[in-house]
From TrEMBL:
PANTHER family assigned: PROTEIN CBG13762, SECRETED PROTEIN-RELATED
Domain of life: Eukaryota
Originating species: Caenorhabditis briggsae
Signal sequence annotation: 1-19
Species classification: Eukaryota, Metazoa, Ecdysozoa, Nematoda, Chromadorea
Name of the protein in question: Protein CBG05388
Entry keywords, A to Z: Signal
Protein backbone atom coordinates (compact mmCIF):
# COMPACT_ATOMS: atom_id res chain seq x y z
CA UNK A 1 0.00 0.00 0.00
CA UNK A 2 1.35 3.43 -0.89
CA UNK A 3 0.99 6.65 1.12
CA UNK A 4 -2.34 8.37 0.32
CA UNK A 5 -1.29 12.01 -0.03
CA UNK A 6 1.42 11.48 -2.61
CA UNK A 7 3.93 8.96 -3.79
CA UNK A 8 7.54 10.00 -3.48
CA UNK A 9 9.57 7.98 -5.91
CA UNK A 10 13.32 7.89 -6.09
CA UNK A 11 14.25 6.16 -9.32
CA UNK A 12 17.74 4.95 -9.89
CA UNK A 13 18.78 3.36 -13.14
CA UNK A 14 21.85 1.24 -13.69
CA UNK A 15 23.46 1.10 -17.10
CA UNK A 16 25.51 -2.06 -17.61
CA UNK A 17 27.40 -0.64 -20.57
CA UNK A 18 28.58 2.45 -18.70
CA UNK A 19 28.12 1.30 -15.06
CA UNK A 20 26.50 4.67 -14.39
CA UNK A 21 23.81 5.51 -11.87
CA UNK A 22 21.21 8.25 -12.27
CA UNK A 23 18.65 9.32 -9.68
CA UNK A 24 15.40 11.26 -10.06
CA UNK A 25 13.03 12.46 -7.35
CA UNK A 26 9.36 12.70 -8.33
CA UNK A 27 6.06 13.35 -6.60
CA UNK A 28 2.97 11.73 -8.17
CA UNK A 29 -0.65 11.92 -7.00
CA UNK A 30 -2.46 8.56 -6.57
CA UNK A 31 -4.15 7.41 -9.77
CA UNK A 32 -2.01 9.63 -12.02
CA UNK A 33 -0.06 8.12 -14.89
CA UNK A 34 3.71 8.24 -14.51
CA UNK A 35 5.96 8.40 -17.59
CA UNK A 36 9.72 8.84 -17.58
CA UNK A 37 12.19 8.64 -20.43
CA UNK A 38 15.64 7.16 -19.90
CA UNK A 39 18.75 6.84 -22.06
CA UNK A 40 21.36 4.09 -22.20
CA UNK A 41 21.39 0.32 -21.78
CA UNK A 42 18.97 0.03 -18.85
CA UNK A 43 18.74 -3.28 -17.00
CA UNK A 44 17.40 -2.42 -13.52
CA UNK A 45 15.19 0.25 -11.93
CA UNK A 46 15.14 0.77 -8.17
CA UNK A 47 12.41 2.74 -6.42
CA UNK A 48 12.13 3.71 -2.78
CA UNK A 49 8.54 4.13 -1.56
CA UNK A 50 6.73 4.47 1.74
CA UNK A 51 4.18 1.77 2.54
CA UNK A 52 0.88 2.31 4.44
CA UNK A 53 2.75 2.13 7.77
CA UNK A 54 5.16 4.87 6.63
CA UNK A 55 8.06 2.41 6.36
CA UNK A 56 10.53 3.10 3.55
CA UNK A 57 10.89 0.10 1.20
CA UNK A 58 13.17 -0.60 -1.76
CA UNK A 59 11.62 -2.22 -4.84
CA UNK A 60 13.54 -3.52 -7.86
CA UNK A 61 12.31 -3.85 -11.48
CA UNK A 62 14.45 -5.93 -13.87
CA UNK A 63 14.09 -5.20 -17.60
CA UNK A 64 13.30 -8.34 -19.64
CA UNK A 65 16.12 -9.41 -21.96
CA UNK A 66 14.98 -12.86 -23.14
CA UNK A 67 17.17 -14.71 -20.60
CA UNK A 68 15.55 -13.62 -17.32
CA UNK A 69 11.84 -14.34 -17.93
CA UNK A 70 11.06 -15.55 -14.39
CA UNK A 71 12.78 -12.56 -12.76
CA UNK A 72 11.74 -9.65 -15.00
CA UNK A 73 8.81 -7.38 -15.80
CA UNK A 74 7.55 -6.79 -12.26
CA UNK A 75 8.52 -4.90 -9.12
CA UNK A 76 10.04 -7.00 -6.32
CA UNK A 77 10.52 -6.02 -2.68
CA UNK A 78 14.30 -6.13 -2.29
CA UNK A 79 14.09 -7.33 1.33
CA UNK A 80 11.48 -10.14 1.21
CA UNK A 81 11.66 -10.92 -2.57
CA UNK A 82 7.84 -10.65 -2.96
CA UNK A 83 6.13 -9.17 -6.02
CA UNK A 84 4.73 -5.70 -5.38
CA UNK A 85 2.98 -2.98 -7.44
CA UNK A 86 2.66 -0.83 -9.37
CA UNK A 87 2.00 -2.35 -12.79
CA UNK A 88 4.67 -1.20 -15.22
CA UNK A 89 5.51 -1.03 -18.92
CA UNK A 90 9.09 -0.56 -20.09
CA UNK A 91 9.79 -0.15 -23.81
CA UNK A 92 13.40 -1.21 -24.36
CA UNK A 93 13.93 0.53 -27.73
CA UNK A 94 12.28 3.79 -26.72
CA UNK A 95 13.45 3.57 -23.09
CA UNK A 96 10.01 4.64 -21.87
CA UNK A 97 8.53 3.62 -18.52
CA UNK A 98 4.69 3.70 -18.26
CA UNK A 99 2.46 2.71 -15.34
CA UNK A 100 -1.22 2.20 -16.39
CA UNK A 101 -4.28 1.12 -14.38
CA UNK A 102 -7.48 -0.70 -15.37
CA UNK A 103 -9.66 1.75 -17.31
CA UNK A 104 -6.72 3.94 -18.38
CA UNK A 105 -6.06 4.83 -22.00
CA UNK A 106 -3.10 2.75 -23.17
CA UNK A 107 -0.93 4.32 -25.88
CA UNK A 108 2.13 2.68 -27.42
CA UNK A 109 4.17 4.45 -30.09
CA UNK A 110 5.03 2.40 -33.20
CA UNK A 111 6.43 3.94 -36.40
CA UNK A 112 4.61 2.86 -39.60
CA UNK A 113 3.93 -0.80 -38.76
CA UNK A 114 2.08 -3.13 -41.14
CA UNK A 115 0.74 -5.14 -38.23
CA UNK A 116 0.90 -5.40 -34.46
CA UNK A 117 1.00 -8.60 -32.44
CA UNK A 118 0.34 -9.34 -28.81
CA UNK A 119 0.78 -12.34 -26.54
CA UNK A 120 -1.86 -12.20 -23.79
CA UNK A 121 -3.72 -14.65 -21.54
CA UNK A 122 -7.49 -15.20 -21.70
CA UNK A 123 -9.77 -15.40 -18.63
CA UNK A 124 -8.79 -19.08 -18.16
CA UNK A 125 -5.08 -18.22 -18.12
CA UNK A 126 -4.37 -19.71 -21.57
CA UNK A 127 -1.83 -17.74 -23.62
CA UNK A 128 -3.07 -16.41 -26.95
CA UNK A 129 -1.22 -14.98 -29.93
CA UNK A 130 -3.22 -12.16 -31.54
CA UNK A 131 -2.62 -9.96 -34.57
CA UNK A 132 -3.88 -6.44 -35.40
CA UNK A 133 -3.46 -5.46 -39.06
CA UNK A 134 -3.09 -1.77 -39.84
CA UNK A 135 -5.67 -0.60 -42.41
CA UNK A 136 -4.09 0.43 -45.73
CA UNK A 137 -7.06 0.66 -48.14
CA UNK A 138 -6.52 -2.84 -49.57
CA UNK A 139 -7.29 -4.94 -46.49
CA UNK A 140 -10.61 -3.54 -45.19
CA UNK A 141 -12.06 -6.94 -44.22
CA UNK A 142 -8.97 -7.98 -42.24
CA UNK A 143 -7.85 -4.76 -40.50
CA UNK A 144 -8.64 -2.63 -37.46
CA UNK A 145 -9.27 -5.41 -34.93
CA UNK A 146 -7.41 -8.07 -32.95
CA UNK A 147 -7.62 -11.60 -34.39
CA UNK A 148 -6.67 -14.82 -32.60
CA UNK A 149 -3.98 -16.39 -34.83
CA UNK A 150 -5.09 -19.94 -34.00
CA UNK A 151 -8.90 -19.63 -34.24
CA UNK A 152 -9.03 -16.73 -36.77
CA UNK A 153 -11.76 -15.10 -34.61
CA UNK A 154 -12.06 -11.43 -33.65
CA UNK A 155 -10.93 -10.92 -30.06
CA UNK A 156 -9.60 -8.30 -27.71
CA UNK A 157 -10.48 -4.71 -26.93
CA UNK A 158 -11.45 -1.86 -29.21
CA UNK A 159 -8.11 -0.67 -30.58
CA UNK A 160 -7.11 2.08 -33.00
CA UNK A 161 -3.90 2.96 -34.77
CA UNK A 162 -3.43 6.70 -35.30
CA UNK A 163 -1.18 7.06 -38.37
CA UNK A 164 -0.60 10.79 -37.80
CA UNK A 165 0.69 10.22 -34.27
CA UNK A 166 2.18 6.74 -34.92
CA UNK A 167 0.24 5.51 -31.91
CA UNK A 168 -1.63 2.32 -31.04
CA UNK A 169 -4.49 3.23 -28.69
CA UNK A 170 -6.65 1.06 -26.44
CA UNK A 171 -9.17 3.58 -24.99
CA UNK A 172 -9.96 1.58 -21.83
CA UNK A 173 -7.41 -1.05 -20.89
CA UNK A 174 -8.44 -4.19 -18.95
CA UNK A 175 -6.48 -6.75 -16.92
CA UNK A 176 -6.61 -9.20 -19.85
CA UNK A 177 -4.74 -6.66 -22.02
CA UNK A 178 -1.55 -7.32 -20.05
CA UNK A 179 1.11 -9.09 -22.10
CA UNK A 180 3.78 -8.59 -24.74
CA UNK A 181 3.11 -6.23 -27.66
CA UNK A 182 5.30 -5.86 -30.76
CA UNK A 183 5.23 -4.60 -34.33
CA UNK A 184 6.50 -6.32 -37.47
CA UNK A 185 9.96 -4.83 -36.75
CA UNK A 186 9.97 -6.58 -33.34
CA UNK A 187 9.82 -3.30 -31.41
CA UNK A 188 8.59 -4.93 -28.18
CA UNK A 189 6.70 -3.47 -25.21
CA UNK A 190 5.81 -5.40 -22.05
CA UNK A 191 2.46 -4.30 -20.59
CA UNK A 192 1.53 -4.92 -16.95
CA UNK A 193 -1.86 -3.68 -15.73
CA UNK A 194 -2.58 -2.58 -12.16
CA UNK A 195 -5.98 -3.59 -10.70
Amino acid sequence: MIRKSSIIILLGLISVAFCSVSQRMMSVKPGERLEMEFYGNITIFTIMVYNAKDVLQTHVFRVCNGKNKSKCGFWENKKNKQKVGPATIFNIKKSLLIIPKVGDRLEIEYYSPKKLERFVKNAKGVEQHQVYRICNGNNKAKCGFWENIKTKKKVGPTTNYNKKKNMMVIPKVKLLDAGTYRDNYYDTVYVYIEK
